[in-house]
Amino acid sequence: MTDRALSVVRAGALTTVQDLGRPGHAHLGVPRAGALDGPAAALVNRLVGNPPEAAVLETTLNGCSLRPRSAVTVAVCGASCPVRVDGRPVAWGGPVRVPAGALLDVGAARHGVRSYVGVSGGIAVEPVLGSRSTDLLSGLGPAPLTDGAVLPLGSPTHLHARVDVAPQPAPPTELVLRVTLGPRDDWFTPEAVRAFTSRTYRVSPASNRIGLRTEGPALDRARPGELPSEGMVLGAVQVPPDGRPVVFLADHPTTGGYPVIAVVRTEDLSAAAQAVPGTPVRFLGVRRH
């Protein structure tokens, strides 16, 4: 058995393998998937000397514990958290050497929701449709980590970055999402559209990798009934019957029958990945390009 592997000692609440995702398969009903906080995933790869497409681990809220079978370089970014090697505190946000057999513990998030663990060589599970990402909606890719699982690692290709700690944005204290109205904003009353772009919502605890759910003023319909199912894109803001907007994230369905009032700018979605429940959310209307 190869010594280029990680043993999962503690899987945590939800730890998945993620990379750049599998775009381009929506016509087959396959979501994009991939890391919710793309900049954080890219940063851990840079810090350990991996190419951008290398797979990393995405943890949720309470981290995970791992034991490498050979010496590796790791980096933890995204949600800030304590990081320890055999009980000794080490850097968060910088490259750390972990000896063979040592226990790497990625602790609970102090600020934010999702931490990312990059390992030199990358997580080398078998790709599906060109990606190693776990997709919670379709079930494609590797299953979420479980205690005792073993993850193969690729071979390192470059030296790790020569930095102590890399700067990163803090999780949002207020999540401001720039939106372009449409294509179905005409399904809502003018008062509802104004409320959508002027009132404050909050992140719901029911949010997940499929969508960021909100709590706040319900949006009233101008039309009864439902749409025939139509294509959904990353960042689509769908409004289900309860009237509370849902922002579709990486594991979103590729079709849906509830009206989409607006679409969020893609570059704003990484902040949504780190918004804890209760974070205020404002939808800021912008002009179409």
TrEMBL record:
| Swiss-Prot/TrEMBL keywords | ATP-binding, Hydrolase, Nucleotide-binding
Q: Which domain of life is it from?
A: Bacteria
Gene3D superfamilies (UniProt xref): Cyclophilin-like (2.40.100.10)
**Carboxyltransferase domain location, by residue?**
27-289
Taken from the record, one Pfam family name reads CT_A_B
InterPro entries under this entry? CT_A_B, Cyclophilin-like_dom_sf, PxpC
Q: Which PANTHER family match?
A: 5-OXOPROLINASE SUBUNIT C (PTHR43309)
Q: Per its record, how is this protein called by name?
A: Biotin-dependent carboxyltransferase family protein
